[in-house]
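Backbone-to-sequence.
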């Protein structure tokens, strides 16, 4: 195969990218996207601040554009993200107790319900743990207590029973205190029948990141009977060091049968959240980088 999506599809996987709706009609951006990828995720427009700027008033314009772009081209869509401590609208930040609980549940049913049947996998909860494995002391954690993650997954399951429901986080690129804590949560959810289907590994990396237990970590989660996905991959640096790190991550996913696919967090260095860094597979002129060829070869 000579594109990322086609190469991934040969083993039943997807290869996706984060996108912004404003650029879908840009010719260089759109042609590279449509040629190379068979999955997309919204970089920002499906987050809480974008989808529910005022309580109970939903705005799906950006997300709908992305979903329609994908649907008409046979691409699958990852949903990102239903509940997160960041990019919350202002009105959520002041809520307490049961009012915050109801707002969270209504948000999940509103957004996941709107996209019901159209989302391959939802990041139901994003970034709820600290490096040391403790819970992040967000408004959700402080107001709702430990049970909020499970409540979010149950609400997402009711709203869209066919989407895979994922927990997503960063800094889980190997066996460490943070991934251990998430592992125990998944184990607990599985033993009690809380609906969780997948864990997303964001994988915001650098060329010198320690990837020595990356594959082993994916495998131990898969062995719990869930799927694993690489959800926001980007790797700082350039040249062979960057290409080798991309190769290692790609090979890890391919080696784990329950690794469904890989999503990179943007595809051209012209549009990366990491600013002047060059962490993606295409340069600022949409030329394929060494890292691109390493990925294509490893898929
Ligand atoms: C980032 C976007 O790329 C930026 O455009 C935005 O300003 C902030 O959020 N982890 C996540 C993503 O789960 O949603 C973040 O995306 C990057 C880190």
């Amino acid at each position: 195969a000579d594109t990322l999506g086609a190469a991934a599809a040969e083993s039943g996987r997807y290869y996706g990218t984060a996108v912004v709706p404003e650029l879908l009609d840009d010719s260089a951006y759109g042609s590279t996207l449509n040629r190379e990828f068979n999955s997309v995720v919204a970089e920002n427009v499906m987050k809480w601040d974008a989808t529910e700027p005022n309580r109970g008033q939903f705005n799906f314009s950006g997300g709908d554009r992305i979903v329609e772009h994908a649907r008409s081209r046979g691409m699958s869509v990852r949903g990102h993200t239903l509940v997160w401590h960041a990019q919350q609208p202002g009105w959520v930040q002041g809520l307490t107790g049961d009012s915050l609980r109801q707002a969270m549940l209504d948000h999940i049913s509103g957004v996941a319900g709107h996209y019901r049947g159209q989302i391959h996998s939802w990041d139901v909860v994003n970034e709820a743990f600290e490096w040391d494995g403790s819970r992040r002391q967000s408004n959700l954690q402080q107001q709702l207590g430990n049970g909020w993650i499970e409540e979010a997954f149950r609400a997402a399951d009711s709203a869209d029973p066919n989407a895979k429901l994922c927990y997503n986080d960063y800094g889980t690129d190997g066996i460490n205190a943070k991934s251990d804590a998430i592992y125990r949560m998944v184990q607990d959810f599985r033993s009690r029948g809380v609906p969780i289907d997948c864990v997303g590994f964001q994988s915001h990396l650098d060329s010198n990141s320690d990837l020595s237990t990356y594959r082993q970590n994916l495998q131990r989660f898969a062995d719990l009977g869930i799927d694993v996905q690489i959800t926001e991959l980007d790797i700082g640096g350039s040249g062979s060091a960057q290409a080798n790190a991309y190769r290692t991550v790609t090979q890890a996913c391919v080696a784990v049968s329950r690794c469904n696919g890989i999503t990179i967090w943007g595809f051209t260095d012209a549009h990366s959240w990491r600013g002047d860094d060059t962490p993606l597979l295409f340069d600022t002129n949409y030329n394929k980088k060494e890292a691109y060829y390493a990925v294509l070869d490893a898929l």
